[in-house]
Amino acid sequence: MDAPERTLQAQDTEITCRLFVAFELGEKNWKLSLGDGVRAPSRCTVGAGDTASVLTAIAKARARCHLHPDTLVLTCYEAGRDGFWLHRWLSVQGIVNLVVDSASIEVNRRSRRAKTDRLDADKLLSMLMRYYAGERRVWAVARVPSAQQEDERRVHRELERLRHERTAHINRIRSLLVLHNLRVERVGGRNWARW
User: Fold this and answer.
1) Superkingdom of this entry's organism (predicted)?
2) Which pLDDT tens digit goes with each residue over 9-46?
């Protein structure tokens, strides 16, 4: 084998020595799509938040793809209800993770397609491979805040949610009063009990 062939083989080995994992996070279960870009992806379902099962699935996928136990693992999931704790946990495990803005994921609006978690995970896996192949405009990667920043945001968001809830309750009370021909200028406040 001459030098150029050895170089090409080394480059091929570098390219294929990665394991890609896409998460579709659900309330009760997570769907994982795992592959190395050469073989057909494998799929598995783990309980939501079951980190031990995630590590087991990654180990099985490494074995199935004949990858070394120290092979780089590249993962992604859509930003959503679960927040960023999974990203932080994956980083501690030595796994490179991307949190993807779900609004930036391309969708063919003309075609009708089935919508299942399995298909979503496969689509994310395909896009993850494209992203690491150099196609950076495949999606928008979300900036992951620190745990402290995330906690600070939570207080503000909860306060906003409570304000919206309060407005909804006031409007409902006002509507119920109008049903009985009772009109008030202001619902609530100090004088409300005397009204």
Assistant:
1) Bacteria
2) 444 444 558 999 999 999 999 999 999 988 899 999 99
Q: What pLDDT band is residue 193 in, cutting at 50, 70 and 90?
A: low
Q: 81 and 177: one domain?
A: no
Helix%, strand%, coil% for the chain, nearest 5 = 50, 15, 35
- 111 and 139 in a single domain? The answer is yes
Mean pLDDT on 164-191: 85
Going by the DSSP 8-state scheme, the letter that residue 61 receives in this structure is: H
Contact 123, 155 (CB under 8 A): no
Q: Is 195 helix (H, G, I), strand (E, B) or coil?
A: coil
Strand intervals (E) in 9-91? 18-25, 29-35, 42-47, 72-78
Which of 142, 116, 120, 121 minimizes the C-alpha distance to 20?
Answer: 121
- Tell me if 82 sits within 8 A of 25, measured CB to CB: yes
Co-location of 117 and 51 in the same domain: yes
pLDDT at 108 over 70: no
Whether the pLDDT of residue 71 is over 60: the answer is yes
**Closest alpha carbon to 21 in 107, 111, 127:** 127
Reading the block at residue 39, the tokens are 């073989």
Residue 35 burial (10 A CB sphere; 0-12, 13-18, 19+): buried
Q: What are phi and psi of 183, to 5 degrees?
A: -115, 125
pLDDT over 50 (residue 8): no
